[in-house]
Design goal:
Largest sheet: 5 strands, antiparallel
CATH class of the largest domain: Alpha Beta
Number of helices: 10
Number of domains: 2
Distance between the termini: 51 Å
Strand content: 25-35%
CATH topology of the largest domain: Alpha-Beta Plaits
Radius of gyration: 22 Å
Structural class: alpha+beta
CATH architecture of the largest domain: 2-Layer Sandwich
Number of strands: 12
Strand order of the largest sheet: 2-1-5-4-3
């Protein structure tokens, strides 16, 4: 399957994932646990708009693991004042199972938490996109990148030394956008200078990386320990992308370029096979490319940039 056929095959999946889904705003008064919802949240849970809602009954619509995770993060947010985002599994009142992205902020008055608030969005189609792309990447590479031998050795070592090795790690693939056009326009020597410069910048930015190596023409792979979640990884990589994309000089030429980054997060305990984490990173890179490049996407994270986040008020 060539690149055009691949884009044609995956475009419907992507379009469904980014289509406007049920989304709404919500608020919970911490004094009495009363809830306020906009229509979008009622639709997400399959409830009649403006019907009576009670936190105890709404919690029953969360799957057990999601309910536990949400309650733990909720308690922490109230005590620390720091909001969070979490993807939850729910079962709507209609019986339909859905994925919901919960974004939470904490409102204070006179230094005391008064309310929590935020948004809830149906991301079921988005989750389906990630699953389908990963399956496709395992059977046929989406981008043609390969895990360098140094990475394969490191991943095997992580799997072998689960107790002494990193608890969580990330694989990121950096791809120079429209690299073939750069080669055609400026020549092989200029493209090699650009690739060499990016490799050097990566090594300076990540001196403690588990591995850094070339993963194909104009592409690089990075394996690093990752103490945070997907949002943290995306923030780190987006800052890295901006630093890497400074213009590069080659003789009298100044090369301006952009980068797309796809990444996957894994734990040593949850490690499967090296080709699986590569497939997930490739799927994320493919989504970044479908959005026009010059961006970062993390597997199983938001497909498009989050437009707004809950903040303290």
């Amino acid at each position: 399957m060539n690149s055009q056929q691949l884009i044609a095959a995956t475009r419907p999946l992507y379009d469904r994932a980014v289509a406007t889904a049920a989304i709404g705003a919500w608020e919970c008064n911490l004094a009495n646990e009363s809830l306020s919802w906009t229509d979008g949240v009622y639709d997400l849970f399959g409830l009649q708009r403006s019907s009576g809602i009670y936190r105890s009954s709404i919690l029953d619509l969360y799957e057990d693991q999601s309910r536990r995770e949400m309650n733990q993060l909720r308690s922490k947010a109230i005590s620390t004042g720091q909001g969070f985002a979490l993807d939850c599994r729910i079962k709507a009142a209609t019986g339909e199972k859905r994925w919901m992205r919960l974004v939470v902020g904490v409102g204070h008055q006179h230094g005391r938490p008064l309310r929590i608030f935020g948004s809830k969005q149906d991301v079921t189609a988005e989750k389906g996109l990630w699953t389908d792309l990963a399956v496709m990447a395992r059977s046929e590479p989406l981008t043609g990148h390969v895990v360098p031998h140094s990475f394969a050795d490191t991943l095997r070592q992580i799997r072998h030394d689960r107790r002494s090795g990193p608890d969580r790690f990330a694989l990121a693939i950096f791809q120079i956008d429209r690299f073939r056009n750069l080669v055609e326009d400026f020549g092989k020597a200029a493209s090699e200078t650009l690739s060499r410069c990016i490799a050097e910048r990566l090594k300076r930015l990540f001196p403690d990386a588990l591995a850094i190596d070339q993963a194909g023409p104009g592409a690089f792979a990075l394996l690093l320990q990752m103490p945070g979640d997907r949002h943290y990884l995306r923030t780190v990589l987006d800052g890295t992308r901006r630093l890497l994309c400074r213009p590069v000089s080659h003789g009298a030429l100044v090369l301006d370029f952009t980068l797309s980054i796809g990444a996957a997060l894994a734990t040593a305990d949850g490690y499967r096979q090296q080709q699986e984490i590569l497939a997930e990173a490739e799927a994320a890179l493919h989504v970044a490319g479908m959005e026009g490049g010059d961006c970062v996407r993390v597997f199983d994270g938001p497909v498009t940039a989050i437009r707004a986040r809950a903040t303290s008020a």
